[in-house]
Specification:
The chain is mainly α. Helix content is 82%, strand content 1%. The protein has 18 helices and 2 strands. It has a two-stranded antiparallel sheet.
Length: 403
């Protein structure tokens, strides 16, 4: 029996462990999202000032992501992820402590920086587990992130309903999530660099392959950001829906994405990454056209749900393709993640600008056009099909799943 076969149980445990880390990462995001109004009131900010401060999250993530590979090289993947996930969970308390715009900008930069580094490290480990198992798992891992975000959001909603101070809420959540994250990291793969391997650069431009893959992720994340931030507004302003029904459209979109990601690996393993993403792009386009043509709230909600179903697995497969595309998975994943974070940053504001100049209907015409890019350029993910089905003995030799 080969060394790879002999470590199958350990690799499976490592898969569950990294899935738990994804869930913890998502729970932090969900916890914060529910208390943004409290943070805004505490810092006495206008809507414009709040938007400016929140932009520092993406800025911090984009600046820090290239560092994740160097940290993993210096300390090994397990120790690096343990430290980065703890840094991310603890950073949850920072926004609630900020008394004004300037301190909130600094807090959001640190919050985003820790999120980005942990994001790259856990996705790189997810790619390693996928390589060893020889089948797609990245969609399910991102599904666990969505499930964690929903769980954190539910707890945050309860805390807000009870009128709890966000400083207390975030402190309690940070303690629980830090313990869970650190414990889970005890079972992730411990990938150590070869003795003669050069450390990755602190900052480097993404490889060309990552740029092409990132372009597909950009289109998908643009549709995701537009739907998350504007679906409720679309139903309220365009279709005169009630506040509750408008909010339900956003919840439905999130649930559709979460469920599709959890079951997406089975589809990818059956049909391959390229065909899955291409079909998803077609579904997203159809969903966007339903939204544009909607004359009734039910039609628009069905359109948003269809978009969520179509784009759900795109970003996980983009990360997988980037990780399999070259010898430095962390660097390629950081490049793709930076592009997708940028898309998530500009999508809500661009949709608002187009809506201000024309209408929300025209804005979602733009979303539909970009969704076409997912279907048209899905072929660049072909590396994920090759990499996701290949077990690498070299990687198996350096990946010790035992704590």
């Amino acid at each position: 029996m080969s060394d790879v076969d002999g470590s199958r149980d350990g690799v499976r445990r490592a898969r569950y462990a990294v899935a738990a880390v994804f869930a913890v990462h998502g729970a932090v995001t969900g916890s914060f999202a529910t208390r943004v109004p409290w943070v805004q009131d505490h810092a006495s900010l206008s809507a414009g000032q709040l938007g400016f401060a929140l932009a520092f999250t993406a800025l911090g993530a984009s600046c820090s992501m290239p560092l994740a590979g160097r940290i993993s090289h210096a300390f090994g993947s397990r120790a690096a992820l343990r430290g980065l996930i703890a840094l991310w969970t603890v950073s949850l308390v920072l926004p609630a402590l900020a008394p004004n715009l300037y301190t909130l900008c600094l807090a959001m930069f640190a919050y985003g920086a820790s999120a980005g580094m942990a994001d790259v490290a856990m996705n790189a480990l997810g790619v390693e587990v996928e390589r060893l198992l020889g089948k797609s798992i990245m969609s399910g891992l991102h599904g666990m992130w969505s499930a964690g975000a929903l769980t954190g959001s539910a707890a945050g909603t309860l805390a807000a309903h009870l009128g709890a101070d966000a400083r207390l809420h975030f402190a309690c959540a940070a303690v629980v999530l830090t313990v869970l994250g650190v414990l889970a990291c005890g079972w992730v793969l411990d990938v150590q660099p070869a003795e003669d391997e050069e450390p990755p650069p602190r900052f480097a431009l993404p490889p060309r392959s990552a740029l092409l893959i990132g372009a597909v992720g950009f289109c998908a994340v643009f549709a995701e950001g537009a739907s998350l931030d504007w679906s409720a507004v679309f139903l309220r302003d365009r279709l005169d829906s009630s506040a509750g029904l408008a909010a339900a459209s956003t919840t439905g979109f999130m649930l559709t994405m979460a469920v599709a990601r959890i079951v997406g690996d089975a589809v990818v393993n059956r049909f391959g990454a390229v065909r899955t993403v291409r079909a998803g792009g077609v579904l997203a386009v159809l969903g966007g056209l339903l939204v544009v043509a909607a004359g009734h709230p039910a039609v628009a909600m069905a359109g948003f749900a269809l978009m969520g179903l179509g784009i759900a697995v795109v970003v996980p497969l983009c990360f997988a393709a980037a990780g399999h595309a070259g010898p430095r998975p962390s660097q390629a994943i950081a490049g793709v993640a930076t592009i997708t974070y940028t898309s998530g940053l500009i999508a809500p504001s661009l949709i608002g600008g187009v809506a201000q100049a024309t209408s929300l209907t025209v804005s979602f015409c733009l979303v539909s056009v970009l969704a076409c890019g997912v279907a048209v350029f899905a072929g660049v993910l072909r590396t994920a099909e090759r990499g996701g089905r290949t077990v690498s003995p070299q990687n198996a030799a350096v990946a010790d799943p035992r704590p």
